[in-house]
Specification:
The protein has 280 residues and is of the alpha/beta class. The protein folds into three domains: 4-113, 3-Layer(aba) Sandwich (Cobalt-precorrin-4 Transmethylase, domain 1); 116-223, 2-Layer Sandwich (Methyltransferase, Cobalt-precorrin-4 Transmethylase, Domain 2), CATH 3.30.950.10; 226-279, no CATH class. It contains twelve helices and ten strands. Helix 2 (37-46) links the parallel strand 2 and strand 3. The chain starts with a strand and ends with a helix.
């Protein structure tokens, strides 16, 4: 009988932020796959947990996942932990979960600490719908593309950033998006936890005068949906109805459906579009 893979969240700063269930699971499994075994050993010693560990991180995630899946298939129960927070969220654990599921292994995820959700809930920004970008890509082209997409993102967006890159990231966001509401969450759950309710411009002014310290979670307000719709409508009204229709028909949308979409874009009725097409 195959073993089970347990996704076990660990504290993101405060050691008290671990559940009884995670502690008991770490005590019960046969092996713990850890991002940094030395870091995890401190946590295990604190809770008097003594289990064999194996290293599983970004640089060995594919090949090591294959070996761990073999162990799981042989009946070994494995817990995966990251240095802080929930594994598989912006983390190499994603690969192990994928391979385990593909092999038919039972995967269960235990609730626990996650910096993204913790920051979001104290951001005072809309939380019903949100986007998570984690760390922005290091590759310049990919990074520009990701930031450009945020220009039309109406949802609250959560971004992780290290202190030495924070000011640069803030300036890039301001250059592309203009000023937006922003909550900066610093050192979450730790002794010097701080939440700064500001905007991008205010954050730039703040950190041009004092160096950022600690790990940051940026909770960024979405763009103004009404303004976005208004700007889009102005663009559509600047073109003829036939040109507007071709945007959809060229993509394979049938003419009847295209008329509905054009009417919605222009804020008029479908009959108005039909009559306009008859004129042409």
């Amino acid at each position: 009988m195959a073993g089970t893979l347990y996704v076990c969240p660990t504290p993101i700063g405060n050691l008290e932020d671990i559940t009884f269930r995670v502690i008991n699971t770490l005590k019960d499994v046969d092996m713990i796959a850890a991002e940094d075994t030395r870091h995890t050993l401190k946590l295990l010693n604190h809770f008097d947990i003594h289990k064999p560990m194996t290293s599983y991180h970004e640089h060995n995630k594919i090949e090591k996942a294959k070996k761990l899946v073999e162990k799981l298939l042989d009946g070994v129960n494995i817990a995966i932990v990251t240095d802080a927070g929930t594994p598989a969220i912006s983390d190499p654990g994603e690969e192990l979960v994928r391979q385990a599921v593909a092999a038919g292994i039972t995967v269960t995820s235990l609730p626990g600490a996650c910096a993204c959700i913790t920051a979001l809930t104290m951001s005072a920004l809309p939380t019903r719908r949100f986007a998570f970008e984690a760390f922005l890509p290091a590759d310049r082209k990919e990074r520009r593309q990701v930031i450009a997409r945020l220009k039309t993102e109406i949802r609250t967006t959560v971004i992780y950033e290290a202190p030495h890159h924070l000011l640069k990231t803030l300036k890039e966001l301001y250059a592309e998006l203009g000023n937006r509401q922003l909550t900066l969450c610093r050192e979450i759950t730790k002794k010097h936890e701080e939440c700064i309710y500001t905007d991008i411009e205010g954050a730039i002014s703040l950190y041009e005068n004092e160096p950022p310290r600690g790990e940051y979670v940026l909770v960024l307000g979405g763009c103004d949906e009404e303004k976005l719709l208004s700007d889009s409508r102005e663009e559509f009204l600047a073109m003829s109805v036939n040109e507007h229709m071709r945007i959809y028909t060229d993509k394979g949308v049938d003419r009847k459906e295209a008329m509905k979409l054009v009417a919605k874009d222009r804020g008029v009725s479908k009959r108005d579009i039909y009559n306009e097409l008859l004129k042409d």
